[in-house]
Each structure stands twice: as C-alpha cells, then as structure tokens.
Amino acid sequence: MRRALGTLYGGMTSARVADRYSLDQEIGRGGSGAVWLGRDEILGRPVALKRVGLPPGAATPDMVRAEREARLAARVNHPNVVAIFDFVEDAESHWLVMEYIDGMTLSRMIQEQGPRPADEVAAVLAQVADALTAAHEVDIVHRDVKPSNILVSKDGQVKLSDFGIARAMADATLTRTGLVTGSPAYLSPEVATGASATKASDVWSLGATMYHALAGHPPYEGDGDSNAVLGILYRIVHEDPPRLRTAGWLGPLLEMTMTKDAADRPSMAEVADYLHARNGVRERVQSMVMAGSTGVLPAVPAPPSPPSTMTAAMPPSPPAPPPQEDVDEPARSGGKRAAIIGGAVVAVLAVLGVVLVATSGEDEPPPAANTVPTESAQDTGTSDGASDDPSASASAEPPTEQELEDFATSYVQTASSDPEAGFDLLTPDFQAASNGLRGYLDFWGQVSNVEVLDTQADPDQMTVTYTYEYDYPGVGNRTEEVTLRLAQVEGALLVAEELS
Q: How sure is the predictor about 166, in pLDDT bands with cuts at 50, 70 and 90?
C-alpha cells in the first residue's frame, strides 16, 4: 500500500514526504489538491498534508498560490485558523503540512444532518468570525469563506482553512485566475462584477455561509456548468439577496451581512460581537436602529412601518424545515436599510453577454400564489356572476362603527394566532400586495404577545384605526398604530388596504 501511494504520486519512492511525514489515507480532495492524513515522524503528531494540485486549465501546479497560503495563514496566528506547519518539496510534488482536525467540514455536516438551528450556527460561525477578525486586523482578506473551508472538530472547536486565494491588502500579485477558483455561490456582488475583494466581501461570504447552514442549501445554486455560474453571478448582482423566514434571531444579522452595498455591511468584529452576544452590541444597535441611526451595524432591521407591517421580518423556525419554496424569497426593499444597487453593472454585462438575456427570465422567481377564494365566497350558494361582481356588496347593509372596531380587534388576534386564517381575511388584491402568503407570514408569523389597545372606526370611509402592542424578536416590545381600509364582500368584511 505504501509503495502504491508512492507510485501514484510519481517520483515518490516511499510512503514519506520529505523523509519526515508519513502518508496514511486521503481524507479530502478539491480544486486546490488532495489532502492526506499523515504523521510527523519527528514530533510524533498527526498532520494533514495537502498536495499542491493543478488549477483548472493549468499545466503546472500553482506554486504561487500554495506559497501564499502558507505565508498568509502563518501570519494569522489564531486558535480558529488551521495552522500551517511546513511547506516542503518531495521529488516532483509540493506539500503544505498543516494542523490535522479530527472532525468534518461544515458543508458535510449540513449535507448529512440538514439545516442547523440558529443557536448551533451561531456557535460555529462566531469562531469563524473571530478568525476572520484576526485576519482583517493584519489586513488579510480570505476571499473564499464557505462551508467546505470551515472545519468542526469532534469537541466543537472550529477552524477556518484554505487561505489559498487569500490576499494581503497591499499584495497586488494575485491575478484573476485566483479569483475564479473561488465559489460563485458565496461571492459578494462587488466581487461578482470584477472588483477587488475587501474585508466587506468576507462579511458577505460569511453571511452566505450562514444562509447555507440555516437553510440547508446555498443562497445561490446551479449545476456547475458555465451557464449556471454566469446565471449565479447575474442573480447576485441584479436580484435582491435571498432572505430566510426561518433564520430566527440570526435573521437580522443575515440580512445585514448579505447587503448589496458593501459600505452598509457590519465589520467582521461587529459580526463576531453579535454572534457572541458580547459588549452589549445587540442592545446598543437595537437602540440605534429604533432611533433611526445608520452609523453602525443594524443588528435588527427597523421594525416595518405601515404599509409594510404585514410583509416584513421572519417567522420563527418550525420544528421541521419547510420545502425550499417556503423557506426563502427575494428580500423586499420597503423598510430595509440596505439600498439596492440600481441599474445594470457594466462589468457583469460584459462577462455575461447574451447569456444574461437568455437566462434572465429563468432566474425570476415564480409568481406567488396570491389568492385562494375565501370560504365565504365559496359557500354562499350565489351564482358565479354575483360572487365575482364587486357591486354585489352594495346591497349589503353598511357596517356600524362598532362592527368595524370589532372586526379590527378580531383580525389582529386571528392574524397573530393563526396567520393563515388572517391571510384569508384580506381581499385578493391585498393578498397580492402583501407578496402572497409567504410575505404575510414574514411578519405575522414572527410577532407574539399581541394586544389591541385602542380602535377607532369611520363607517363613512370604511376605515378603522387600531393601536396595538406586540413583541418582535431582536427588537422587543413595540407599539404601533395602523389604519386599514375595509371592504364588504358578500356581507363579510375583508381588509382591502393598509393606509398607514
């Protein structure tokens, strides 16, 4: 077996590398080369050895990349970074000798165990954020943060690996070849357009990794061919970042790390503080967000102001993950701090060419299932013509002020206790304006401890104003005043519009 290993890597005549490190078994393989479990025969400790491989389309090993990985990883002396012990040459092969981690990658963990709960994701990514904070402090950008580069040991310690395309801020030697070896699904919008990666780009990639861990799949997916990659790049640049309604208390952080404008993203140190819940960052930021300040990390988005009250935020995580189509959706611009990059990005258009035109329609999300006829409309026994005619309600007796106020109280209680039933109390047009059931659930599936404090109705205008109090994750207790315009459909009151 040992002789076979030597023959496999042509030129090796023994099972040792550099006459010091044994090779026991291959434990991983990627675009940057194979990784083997071995042993340092001098120091008597297990090591991981990565044989420097050939980059895609190259004829010789990327020695510059390997040397950069060794040099930069060695500069980040941190317990959550995989340590580099040696960089050696053996016959025709070059090897990175690294710290061996007895565990698995985060990507494999997700693959085997499915989406992870928010608390577990935070415990893992807090350590990654610590490692990246240390790298950023010495002006090193990792540039390839993703689940497969995060190792979780059996005792729960987390290590960030693969600084192969990392770059020191002052280092201008890394070429575009290094960039394309990154993972498109986790690239930030600015990098997807061809701009240089920055510390803020690592923040986005960590957010995309967080999304993957929470959802069980990457934020952007493709089958790996060139058209799929181009489609992913197009979506990253032109579409609103995907959001998760099952992110729980990590939802606000996920939203702000995956914000298109790099200047609006938090620093990696702030991300680490949020994940560790230290330095009072959540409480401090919450106060600033509530006051309308935009100077630092908005750890929670400003609670949606009407008319977006029914369509903002994320609902609590269910016991079992829902199907993908019920998990994520494009973010809405209303009530969000992150500004959407407007217009076409010239660099991406130059790269994508006609592919963008051919795939842009395919990348659009399917239209939401906006309406389902309410039971009152189905069971009235009236003719089709009568049920579809808005004027049919003209003959119904106008509701009284008390009836309008009673409806408002009942509606809020229904929406908070059974959001799907609350959604049925909207007119079809307002269901569509609320981005369908999923959009409606984004807010009403998240609030709790709802109490209506006051109601005031105007029967002539068919409006009702209610003041209510509720708890919102990451924000705490909120009090809001909302005015609804109601419609009378076949004798039943429905919410037709939110006015404030």
A: low
Q: Is 5 helix (H, G, I), strand (E, B) or coil?
A: helix
DSSP string covering 410-425: HHHHHHHH-HHHHHTT
| 144 a catalytic residue | yes
Whole-number Å distance between alpha carbons of 432 and 342: 24
How many Cα atoms are found within 13 Å in the side-chain-facing hemisphere of 465? 7
Tell me what percent of the residues of the chain surpass a pLDDT of 90. Answer: 40
- The answer to whether residue 325 scores a pLDDT higher than 80 is no
Average pLDDT score over residue span 144-173 = 79
Query: Could you read off the pLDDT of 357-413 as tens digits, one per residue?
Result: 233 333 333 333 333 333 333 343 333 433 444 434 444 688 999 999 999 999 998
Query: Residue 161: which of 132, 120, 119 has the closest Cα?
Result: 132
Q: Grade residue 311 by pLDDT with cuts at 50, 70 and 90.
A: very low
DSSP string, 321-360: PPPGGGTEEEPPSTT-SSPPPPS--HHHHHHHTHHHHHHH
Range of the domain at 51: 2-99
Q: How many CB atoms lie within 10 A of CB 111?
A: 13
Question: Are 430 and 357 in a shared domain?
Answer: no
Q: Catalytic residue, from 90, 144, 162, 202: name it.
A: 144
**Matching residue, tokens 């987390």:** 158
Residues 357 and 381 in one domain: no
Residues 91 and 117 in one domain: no
- Average pLDDT over the chain reads 73
Domain end: 52, 79, 99, which one? 99
Please give the torsion angle defined by the CA atoms of residues 299, 303, 309 and 310, in that order, rounded to the nearest 10 degrees: 30
